[in-house]
Structures are given as structure tokens and as C-alpha cells.
TrEMBL record:
Source taxonomy: Bacteria, Pseudomonadati, Pseudomonadota, Acidithiobacillia, Acidithiobacillales
Topology class, membrane: Multi-pass membrane protein
Family recorded in the similarity comment: Belongs to the major facilitator superfamily. Sugar transporter (TC 2.A.1.1) family.
InterPro entries: MFS_dom, MFS_sugar_transport-like, MFS_trans_sf, Sugar_transporter_CS
Compartments (UniProt record): Membrane
Identification of the protein by name: MFS transporter
Record-annotated membrane-spanning stretches: 43-69, 81-100, 109-126, 132-155, 167-189, 201-220, 334-351, 357-380, 387-403, 423-447, 454-473
GO cellular component: membrane
PROSITE patterns: MFS (PS50850), SUGAR_TRANSPORT_1 (PS00216)
Gene3D superfamilies: MFS general substrate transporter like domains
Major site of localization recorded for this protein: membrane
A Pfam family assignment: Sugar_tr
One MF term in the entry's GO annotations: transmembrane transporter activity
Length: 493
């Protein structure tokens, strides 16, 4: 690549123009794309960890729940609290802590969230009582809630526009990886240690990896976009140079155009609902809320639905019987979770060409079809029931990660301006988690009172509603973050 001095116009360039710039060889030949630097890959890999731990902890709860119930002798309402409290923590943390990244910076909150996660995770593994366990699960949720906007922003504000969607969704895919690893850990730990307190070892397995992630996050750049939004242009130039450090160095120097410094907006709920931001808020928050109703309900309670519907459970007369039941449902859950991976891989492949909005609508419709098949299966004989139930859940898992589960996360971190991007994305995640908390708490009760089939039919209707509202509030967010302002005013699909 060229090592000649790059002559930058006195006015300079914007941060995103530097990030998106394609290096050239000394003879003027351009590369086919903008290669990621080592720092950009480091930021991405450390952001991956947050989504991995979310999948691990949240979806592992569905596997560990029967053991927890036995360990603490829980009643139905207490079971609902166990499954819902971490999601309630995410609800609070996404806005209360995630929004702080607009004030204190992306890097500081990126580190702080993982410290909080580790502290409460250790507390969870040592929980002496039901109350202490609930407090620790809530604390874990706070940390994961902060990660929702923060992990997205540290990636999207550091990478080239052209590959941003795939990189963000690639990180998001590790939520599904975490879910599969959680199921696998549950199977292995129960096989080695078939005791009631095996659930503690399931959660403890994440402690050391999380500590290593904390250390790694100290060695990344802060977001130049955020620094510019605060008017700290010299620091933004320095961090842009660090972000784009490569051998040979390109660009040689970074001179930012002061006209591209963002104008800070006061962070408050009101700013999300003014004329400028209202449409973005509705798009980011409402479909995500609807999506979480299905994804967390089906995701957390798949082991229970499989065991109940397919009659896989044996009568529990001993701890060994209980462990065997958990292992059987965990294996079925792990198989279904593989479709989450395939779904998000498909989303990565199609997101830049097809667009966020179209994929979200297609995904919602596919979820409705999958849940419909699962509902119909309950009227069939046992053999056909098993095939159609698995087919329905497999289709649901694939389509939710192709569409709404992936795209709502992606859209929420792109559609807001930089100065309120953390707060806006955090608010959307919090609003969405109201749906997740409702589902996690009410699902055990509704499964008992109205039955699996009626519940699945209700979720079919909410999925269709999600597709409709995505179209109503549509704003396509492909391209440069600095140009999305136009898309927020004029919908482009």
C-alpha cells in the first residue's frame, strides 16, 4: 500500500469517511474492500462476549430451573420470578446503565458492565437462599441490559459502513452460541455430577471467561464518534488513528472536519418522542417488544414444553430421575437452538443486500407460520405430533434470528443520532424486555391455565402484528451512520 504522504484538505474528513476509506497501493490501485484493522477485530471479539454470556445465562435458566425448584422448594409464582428477574434486570439496565454510555463514553461502560456481571455471577453460584439468588439474577440482568446498547455501539461506531450489519449480527449470533453452549454444559455437568446443586456449576463455568473479557476491554479505543459528539475533536482524532492503525499505516494522518462534530441533544425520555426522533423510537421499540414475547417465551420454556408435550419426562422419585429429565429436554433444546445459529448466519448473508426492514417483516411472518405448525401438531397422534412440533419450533427459531430477533437489535443501534444513540437503543431494549419479563413470568401460569395450544395461537397473532408495525414505522438504516439522518426523515425500503 502507498506510504506516500496523504494530503488531506484543510477542512478534513468525517470520522466515518476515514473508517470507510479504502487503502490504495503505491501505483494507485485500490483494494476491493476496506480491511478491518487489528483494533477493530479486537473490539468486535470483545463485544461478542456480552451476547454469548446473555445466551448462556438466560437460556440456561430454562435447563437449570427444575434443579433450582428442587433445591429451594419453589412454588409456581417463585418459579416465574426466577425466570423473569434477570430479564427485569435487563429492562432496567438497558436504560439506566446503557444510556450512561452517552454520558461517560462507550469504553467505560463496556468495562463496567462486565465487572457488574462477574460480581453478581459469583454471588449467584454461592447463593445460600432463594432471595439471594433472585438478587444476583437481577444484578446479572442489569449488566446484560447495559450490554444491549453498548456492545452494539462499540462495534457499529468502529467498523466500515459496508460491513456493519454483518459484523453486528455476527456478534449477535453468539447469543445463540451461548444458548447452545449452555445446553451442552448442562448435559455435561449433569452427566458428571447428577446432583441438585449442579445448577451452581453451570453458572460458575462462565466466571473465569468473563474475567478475561474484563481485562481485554481495557485495551480498546473509545468511540471517536462519541468523542466528536462531545466536541472533543483532538481526542477523536487520536482514537481514530489508534482504531485505524495498520502496517503499512493508512491513513498517514487524521484531520477531522469540525463541521462533522455532532450537536449534543439533551438526554431525556422527551427527546425520544419529539418530531425528529419519534418514528425511530417507535420502530426500535415496538416490534422488539412484540418479538421478545415469542423469542423469550419459546426460548426459555422449550425444555418444559418438549418434556410436557412429548411425554419425555419420567416420574421423579429421586435426584437421578430429575437429572435425567433435565438432560432429555436439554438435548432437544440444543437441537432446536442450532436453528438459531443458522438463522442469524442467513441474516448476516442477506442483511446488506435485502435490508433490515424486509428481513424483519419476512422473519415475523415466518415465526407466525412456525408457531402455527407447532399449535396444529398438538391435535395429531404422537408420532406426527413430534415431527410437526419440532418442525414448527425449528422454523420459528430460524425465522426469528433471520428476522426480528436479529434485526430489531440491529435497527435500535443504528436509527438514532450519535448523541442519544446509547439512550435510544437502551430505551428500545428496556421496552422490549417488558415483553420478555411478562412472558417469562406469565408463561408457566398460562401453560397451566390456558394450555400450550392457545398460548401458541396468541403468539402467532403477535408475530403477524409485528410484521405490520415494522412496515408502518419502517426506516431502512443501511449505509453510513452519518447519513442515516436522511433515512429517519424519508423512509427508504
Amino acid at each position: 500500500m502507498s506510504t506516500e504522504k496523504i494530503h488531506t484538505p484543510p477542512s478534513g474528513k468525517s470520522i466515518q469517511q476515514y473508517i470507510d476509506e479504502t487503502p490504495v497501493w503505491s501505483d494507485g490501485t485500490s483494494l476491493k474492500g476496506t480491511p478491518m484493522t487489528a483494533m477493530q477485530w479486537r473490539i468486535w471479539s470483545l463485544a461478542v462476549a456480552g451476547k454469548f454470556f446473555e445466551g448462556l445465562v438466560i437460556f440456561m435458566t430454562g435447563i437449570a430451573l427444575p434443579l433450582i425448584v428442587r433445591d429451594f422448594t419453589l412454588q409456581a409464582a417463585q418459579k416465574g420470578v426466577v425466570t423473569a428477574v434477570a430479564l427485569f434486570g435487563i429492562l432496567i439496565g438497558a436504560t439506566m446503565l446503557g444510556g450512561l454510555s452517552d454520558i461517560f463514553g462507550r469504553k467505560r461502560m463496556f468495562i463496567a458492565e462486565m465487572v457488574i456481571f462477574v460480581v453478581f455471577l459469583i454471588g449467584l453460584t454461592l447463593s445460600p437462599s432463594y432471595l439471594w439468588m433472585v438478587i444476583c439474577l437481577f444484578g446479572i440482568g442489569l449488566a446484560l441490559g447495559c450490554d444491549y446498547p453498548t456492545a452494539h455501539l462499540v462495534i457499529s461506531e468502529a467498523v466500515p459502513s459496508k460491513g456493519r450489519g454483518g459484523l453486528v449480527l455476527g456478534a449477535f449470533a453468539f447469543q445463540a452460541v451461548g444458548a447452545i453452549v449452555g445446553a451442552g454444559l448442562g448435559i455435561i455437568i449433569l452427566d458428571v455430577y447428577p446432583e441438585v446443586d449442579a445448577w451452581r456449576w453451570m453458572y460458575a463455568a462462565a466466571v473465569i471467561p468473563a474475567i478475561l473479557v474484563i481485562v481485554g476491554r481495557f485495551f480498546i479505543t473509545d468511540s471517536p464518534h462519541w468523542l466528536a459528539s462531545k466536541g472533543r475533536m483532538e481526542e477523536a482524532e487520536k482514537e481514530t488513528r489508534r482504531l485505524l492503525k495498520r502496517v503499512p499505516q493508512y491513513p498517514k494522518e487524521v484531520v477531522l472536519n469540525r463541521e462533522h462534530a455532532h450537536h449534543h441533544q439533551k438526554v431525556s425520555p422527551a427527546v425520544l418522542f419529539n418530531n425528529k426522533n419519534r418514528r425511530a423510537t417507535f420502530l426500535a421499540a415496538i416490534p422488539w417488544f412484540i418479538q421478545d414475547l415469542g423469542t423469550y417465551g419459546i426460548g426459555i420454556f422449550t425444555p418444559i414444553i418438549l418434556a410436557t408435550t412429548l411425554g419425555a419426562s419420567r416420574d421423579v422419585h429421586s435426584v437421578a430421575d430429575l437429572a435425567q429429565n433435565v438432560m432429555l429436554s436439554a438435548k432437544g433444546t440444543a437441537l432446536l437452538d442450532m436453528l438459531l445459529i443458522l438463522g442469524v448466519l442467513a441474516a448476516i448473508f442477506f442483511v446488506e443486500g435485502t435490508g433490515r426492514i424486509k428481513l424483519q417483516i419476512i422473519g415475523f411472518i415466518g415465526c407466525a407460520v412456525g408457531l402455527g405448525l407447532a399449535a396444529i401438531s398438538l391435535n395429531l397422534p404422537d408420532g406426527d405430533k413430534t415431527i410437526l412440533l419440532f418442525a414448527g419450533f425449528m422454523l420459528f427459531n430460524f425465522m426469528t434470528n433471520l428476522g426480528p430477533n436479529a434485526q430489531t437489535y440491529l435497527l435500535a443501534g443504528e436509527v438514532f443520532p450519535t448523541s442519544i444513540r446509547g439512550y435510544g437503543a437502551g430505551f428500545a431494549a428496556s421496552f422490549a424486555k417488558i415483553g420478555a419479563v411478562m412472558t417469562a413470568f406469565l408463561f408457566p401460569i398460562l401453560l397451566h391455565t390456558i394450555g400450550t395450544q392457545t398460548l401458541l395461537i396468541i403468539l402467532v397473532c403477535t408475530s403477524i402484528l409485528g410484521a405490520v408495525l415494522t412496515w408502518v414505522f419502517r426506516v431502512e438504516t443501511r449505509g453510513s451512520l452519518e447519513k442515516i439522518e436522511e433515512a429517519r426523515v424519508q423512509p427508504q425500503v
